[in-house]
What does this fold into?
Amino acid sequence: MTTARRTLPPGVGLGLRWEFLEEVLDGPPLDIAFFEVSPENYMRRGGYYPAALERIRGRYPLVTHGLTLSLGAHHPPDAAYLAELRAEVERLDSPWHSDHLAFTSAGSRAFHELFPLPFTRDTAARVADRLEALAETLGRPVAVENITYYALPGPRELSEGDFLHELFERTKAGLLFDVNNVYVNAANHGFDAAQELERFPLDRVVEVHVAGHTRTASGMLLDTHGAPVIEPVLALLARALERTGPVPVLLERDNDVPPLGELLSELRTVRAVCERAWQTPSTREDARAERAGAHASGA
Amino acid sequence: MQAGLENALSELVLGPAVDAGNVGQLLSKHALDAGERAAFEADLERWLVYRKLVRNTLRNAMALAIPRTMARLGPLFDEYFERFLAEQGPRTHYLRDVTTELLDFCAPLWRTDPRVSPWSHDLARHEALEIIIASLGEPVVPHALGALDAERGLAFIEAARVVRYDFAVHRLPAGEADRSEPAREAVALFAYRDGEHDVRYLELSPLAAALVERLLAGESLKNALVSACAATGNEPAQALGGAATLLSDLATRGALLGQAAREDLRKPPKTSDDSGTLREKGHP
It folds into this structure.
């Protein structure tokens, strides 16, 4: 069994977007710890983009983050697809592969969107089994990301935090902790993001995501990755990083992608938050002790 | 209950429009427990957010692939997009391939719908071909073609295809606002990706198209030439010079790699009785 390990340098990376690919290729070395790529965009294809990615791989560490594994679906991931994924992850020499705590398909239909899973023990057991099998198939550690959920299917058997604890007790996979998703969920469902964060198994974090979101006319927040990260999310990031210690942190921007210079400026802001948090005396052990106490008392 | 949940969400997100008045009927068709059903009904507006998100993602991918077709079809495209989602839905892991799935779904429907221009499917295929060719295989270096053994086949780069249209859609202006109509004309194009990763198109004569199709299918050079000539009403002896020029040009462009190994040869397909003449204008 493979255990997620931190083999990316702690620091701030950027989601690789085709909008600024040529600048990355042709420009001077950038102060970016790593790039994250979605393997689906490069799998089963030749041409310019895989060739460009191969050149970038020679200059920056890469890590893969998938979108379509449908880890929580009724049907397990397709074996042929997994074989292709393994080849791509090997080609890119990713230290681990991550995907989402979600289902993205129903039978043969692919949604190309992340749908929330019921927070139940059965679901946790199913996803844990899938993660173990995935690590075996890919031959490397795997991690799973908490998602934004605009609604939840069925009554909650567990809180998200307890669901994650249930999950991680059954798998050696790592947690890819998305700070913005916690913030968006808290705003949309009316709970306190900082308190929610304390319920997550942050000792299992191997990578952190941070992104911007947008607000609809009805006041709902959408996890669009289409705007700069706002200050309250940066504050939540700092709070999380004080507990995780130094880990790779990724700035995501997938829509309305600004010029690379603007993204690099935002990346420096995120990095400053990270460095301040990592200089703060660690409260990780305290957080773990509090969590253990809460679980023991059935909270 | 995960399967019931997935099926209900699939219909809610991909199926016909849903509102508070008909959601109960939709949910009753799926294996949901009372709690799950209540959660859907209570949070319907939020579940419908997913409906918008899925549609936006898929439409954006299609707008990248077939923008002119979408602009020309307008509301008709929306109608068929909805039918595609409701009756089939995307199957692929790869967002870039959803457009091809849509076009395969629409092809027989568009043929029988008088509201859809008869050239619409050709235009959509031609637009979508750009991403397909751009994504295939590896780049190659242009080279001179050496002496060829007629008993053996030829090897092409993976990113090479012969496509046939009933309309000259490849000559339409590139602008999305253009509404001119393509000429009704049987067209064969050789589409390939060059060493700079740019997608190129060469218009082929009927004989050239028949020849290259057969070579791509793995026939030996001799069999391909003989059967292509038979299919297009040409004499092999007279076609030799044009064929040599064509193949040399394809090698110079990097699309033709050279001679294939003997074991790569496949059984040649049947020749047809189609008649025609070698049109030198076809080949560049």
Notes: Chain B touches chain A through 45 residues (CB under 8 Å).
